[in-house]
Amino acid sequence: MPDDPLVSAIVPTLDRPQLVERAVESIDAQTYSNIEIVVVDDSDYVNESPPSFEGIETDLTYLDSGSPEGLPTARNRGIDAASGDLFAFLDDDDVWKPEKTTKQVQFFQNETVGLCTSWRYMVDSVGDIGFVAEADIDGDLLRKLLCRNVVGPPSGVLVGREVIETIGKFDERFLLWEDREWYLRVAREYDIGCVETPLIRYAMESPGKMSGNLEMARRSAYPQLLAKHSDLVERYGRRYVDGWKFRKFGKMAYDAGNRGSAIRYSLSAIASCPSEWPFYRLLLRSVLGEQLYGSLNDFKSWAEGARRKQSTIK
User: Which of 30, 126, 158, 208 has the fewest CB atoms within 10 Å around its CB?
Assistant: First the structure.
């Protein structure tokens, strides 16, 4: 790899011109200079004007689809049009920190990995940071990815061209969780690393976000994922995998405000695999509600602190 590899930043967008302008501006503001931008726009702009990239100094290619083809297809079109040694992705509602590309290119140059992710700021609908989300890639990564996305969103990753040429692009049959399925294929062949500092601002809530679509997850995404990686299901056990599947459904139901469904899915998760504490934690949260559950957590933290203090005194 050259000392200053070309990084191709691929930005899919749909009907959010102001957001994609902001996303592209964050790429243009990178401290790393050898970047090209590929915007893949699925919008028709019948009722609004297309985005303007006037003032953007970074080399930019704009691909106008004219109609929605789906997120994995848009990313793949961007990959096909890109010339980089390394590929990065940025969803139109997310934003990169200025040092993101520099830090991840340096990581690639110092470590033997196929893909590098990062921590992320989780940002609410008014732009305030709620918390920092960390990647959880230590240990058996295939086992973890089969049950949940522990790598993070594509907006936080950098991947080598060789990796994509080896394992393939995003599976366009997936309408949801195409990123998690792709990470599984990467992790089968390559090591995945992480820059352990927040390098993106990830939008938890934005119009048209698909990641919280419980019905789509239940009817298509999970069956597709487990069928495509059925050998891993067999390796780690159907009951374990089903437990985490129901836990995911329960968390999605809880986030949508349906505590009754969240309780039912939590109980199904526990029945499938009683040994996993996160299933019980979701059940408690669903039964108690956010306020009481938060108070319980605060009390637990206080009690643990008091116990540590008492131990120090002794």
Answer: 126
Q: Is the same domain home to 121 and 243?
A: no
CA within 13 Å, CB half, 300: 6
What pLDDT shows up at residue 179? 96
Mean pLDDT of 215-228: 94
Closest alpha carbon to 75 in 188, 162, 171: 171
Share of the chain above pLDDT 70, in %: 92
3-class DSSP string for 148-201: CCCCCCHHHCEEEHHHHHHHCCCCCCCCCCHHHHHHHHHHHHCCEEEEEEEEEE
For residue 47, the model assigns a pLDDT of 79
What CA–CA distance (Å, rounded) separates 74 from 10? 9
Does residue 72 share a domain with residue 193? yes
> Which pLDDT score, from 0 to 100, does residue 200 have?
98
Same domain, 166 and 77: yes
**Taking the CA atoms of the chain, what radius of gyration do you get in angstroms?**
21
Average pLDDT along the chain: 92
The answer to the question of residue 102 being in a domain is yes
Nearest-angstrom CA–CA distance, 261 and 281: 15
Indicate the SS3 state at residue 65.
coil
| CATH code: domain of residue 132 | 3.90.550.10
Q: Could you tell me the pTM of the whole model?
A: 0.91
Q: Which residues contact 4 (CB under 8 A, 6 or more apart)?
A: 33, 34, 105
pLDDT digits (tens, 9 = 90+) for 166-183: 999 999 999 889 999 999
Q: How far apart are the first and last CA of the chain?
A: 57
Domain count, the chain: 2
Task: Kindly state the average pLDDT of the residues 282-295.
Answer: 85
* Beta-strand relationship, 86-89 and 158-160: antiparallel
Q: How far apart are CA 127 and CA 41, in angstroms?
A: 24
